[in-house]
Amino acid sequence: MKKKKNYLTAGEFAKICGVAKHVLFHYDEIHLFQPAYRDEHGYRYYSYHQYDTFLVITNLKKMGMSLSAIRIYLKQRDPQMFLRLLDEKYADIDSQIAQLESIKRMMNWMQQATTSALAHQHDEICVVTLPNATLLCSKDMENATDRSFANYMEEYIHFVKEHHIAVQESVGTMVRIENIRKQDNFNFSYLYQIVAEYDHQQLKKRAKGNYLCGWHKGSYQYIQQTYDKMLAYADNKGYVLGEFAYEEYLIADIAQREEDGYVTKILLEIL
User: Fold this and answer.
1) pTM, whole model, 2 decimals?
2) Residue 172: enclosing H or E segment and its boundaries?
3) Partners of 214 in the beta sheet?
């Protein structure tokens, strides 16, 4: 009886570890973490010193180690093996942090894009002033033999994978204004993403200055109607436009079930 007073019952030990008793029983059955001793009735008892070991198991599980791998480590552990394990897990954690940061950037872009889309009237046309921007562009797609949506998606996927673009929704499309005036707006020129400047042969500049800005709401199939309104507006104002239109897809399938609710932002450079 005196010996039992120096130990914790399975229920008491489970409580301080923040787990259910059956977890301890399972760990015992698979020889991962066993009680300090059993009494004559088979009841399990644990020592306070075992808490640190249990905490190691919990943290190794959080780092993605399987119970079988943890069992092997605990049986063979020594300081050198421990250091190798830490090095390995540091690399795993760094990778997980990078993935989470990527997801966070994607969520931030989507939040800003959706908020921007909801903040504007979709028949609104206005002039906005933009800073210089560096654009990472795809290969020239203009006048491609195959202008099908399937071919566009193939190029899009290739562009995203080739440049390891995490926020895929931030990829826009450049269309030559000359083609838009000819009702040929599906004759895309480039896919693009705004990036920090770095050395790459596929970089282009979008000059700072004034841009005519419009929002197309609805299926992309009817985007020419919005372009016609913006071109008429520019002509009435006497604006001389630049070479390309820049399309940004603010609300699409991930946020809106029906295509009628999609929102595309359009920018036309004013020279």
Assistant:
1) 0.69
2) strand 172-176
3) 125, 266
Give the DSSP H or E segment for 6.
none
Examine domains 5-76 and 107-268 and report if their fold is the same.
Answer: no
Domains of the chain: which residue ranges?
5-76, 107-268
For position 1, what pLDDT does the model report? 47
Residues of the chain under the 70 pLDDT cut: 1-5, 145-148, 166-168, 197-201
- CATH architecture of the domain with residue range 5-76: Orthogonal Bundle (1.10)
Q: Is 174 helix (H, G, I), strand (E, B) or coil?
A: strand
- Rounded distance between C-alpha atoms, residue 185 and residue 187, angstroms: 5
Asked if residue 50 lies in contact with residue 13, where contact means CB atoms within 8 angstroms, the answer is: yes
CATH code given to domain 107-268 = 3.20.80.10
Residue with tokens 């989507």: 110
Distance CA 175, CA 151 (A): 16
Task: Please check whether residue 248 is in contact with residue 265, taking contact to mean a CB–CB distance below 8 angstroms.
Answer: yes
**What tens digit of pLDDT does each residue of 198-222 get?**
656 678 888 899 999 999 998 888 9
